[in-house]
Each structure stands twice: as structure tokens, then as C-alpha cells.
Specification:
The protein is of the alpha/beta class. The chain is built from 5 helices and 6 strands; from the N terminus they run H-H-E-E-E-E-H-E-H-E-H. It has a single domain, classed as 3-Layer(aba) Sandwich (Aminopeptidase), CATH 3.40.630.20. The radius of gyration is 16 Å and the shape is globular. The relative contact order is 0.24. It is an enzyme of class 3 (hydrolase).
């Protein structure tokens, strides 16, 4: 919500959606949003009660979903996409984004992770990565006030998304996505 208030640079059209913590809704909504907007990039943001930093997730995982969602549902197959690859990496170089945003001195610690948790955040991320052939990102943030304010998180997310877009725009043909479906 704070990022929506702040916005991004003028040449970027920002669409913000709240995604329910429901496996079946994610499986319907994420492909529909990709189809509706055909975005250059989708950045998902999720709150993690365990996070103490703003965490850039490198990849999404297909299997291991055993936790019940807000509708008390869990996929019988315990996976996102039957027959899909075990892990899909984002085409965004999260290490570079982390270094660049950390160098801005925003008073927000930014770190990297390779495990978004095998719950709805990871499920959403994998679904989006699969749909987009890697043109997605996921950022975990700590709960408000623990330790960052909404304003601090909003500024950090703004910087993160702008760095991701900058990387995409300046990579041109250098990105060679290997995600075949």
C-alpha cells in the first residue's frame, strides 16, 4: 500500500493487487493477471513473521506444500504445477539488486534467500515464475514496526522494483531464460 502511494518513475505503470492466502485463488488469479496486463515484471510482496530484513527470494519451489490455507485447503498433490520443474529461478539477479539497494543507505537491511517457505508466498512465486518464464520476483518483508515503518518499507520496495526494472532494461538479449514448459 505504501509503494502504491509512493509510485514508481513516470514511465512505469504500477498495478497493485492483494492476493488472498488461498492456493486455488492463486492458481486462478496469477495467470489471469499475467494475461490481463502482459507486464514486463511482476514483483510479489509477502509478510513473514520470521523476517527481520527485507528479503529477496531467488527462486520458487514446486513441491512440499502441506500447510492449510485460509480456506483450510491444501493441494492434494502438494505441488504447484504437476510435472513442472522442482525449482524455477527468477531471471532477476537478486545479488546485484541487493548490493545496489544496500548501497543507497535507506536504513533497511536487504538480504537474499533461496527458500520462500513452502507456503502461499512460495506457491505464489512459483506459479508466477512458471507463468512468466522467470520474469517475476518475490520480496519478503517483516511485519510493520518489526523493525521497519511502512514508510521505510515503501521506500525500500520502491528502490528494489526500480533496480529490478533497470536490470531488465539494461540486460537486453543477455538474459537467456532456460525455463521450458
Amino acid at each position: 500500500q505504501e509503494l502504491e502511494k509512493l509510485g514508481l518513475r513516470d514511465d512505469v505503470e504500477l498495478h497493485v493487487y492483494e492476493v488472498p492466502v488461498e492456493y486455488q485463488t492463486v492458481q486462478r488469479l496469477i495467470p489471469a493477471l499475467w494475461k490481463k496486463h502482459s507486464p514486463q515484471l511482476v514483483v510479489h510482496v509477502g509478510v513473514s513473521g520470521m523476517a527481520t530484513t527485507v528479503t529477496l527470494e531467488k527462486c520458487g519451489h514446486n513441491v512440499g506444500y502441506k500447510g492449510l490455507d485460509n480456506c483450510r485447503f491444501c493441494p492434494g498433490s502438494q505441488c504447484c504445477v504437476e510435472g513442472g520443474p522442482e525449482c524455477i529461478d527468477s531471471i532477476i539477479d537478486m545479488d546485484t539488486v541487493c548490493k545496489r539497494v544496500s548501497a543507497l543507505g535507506l536504513d533497511v537491511a536487504v538480504t537474499i534467500s533461496k527458500d520462500a517457505g513452502r507456503y502461499l508466498c512460495d506457491f505464489t512465486y512459483y506459479t508466477s515464475l512458471y507463468q512468466s518464464r522467470g520474469r517475476s520476483a518475490f520480496v519478503h518483508v517483516p511485519p510493520l514496526g518489526k523493525p521497519y515503518s511502512a514508510q521505510q518499507l515503501g521506500r525500500a520496495l520502491q528502490a528494489i522494483v526500480e533496480e529490478m526494472l533497470d536490470l531488465l532494461e539494461h540486460s537486453g538479449d543477455k538474459i537467456n531464460c532456460q525455463h521450458e514448459h
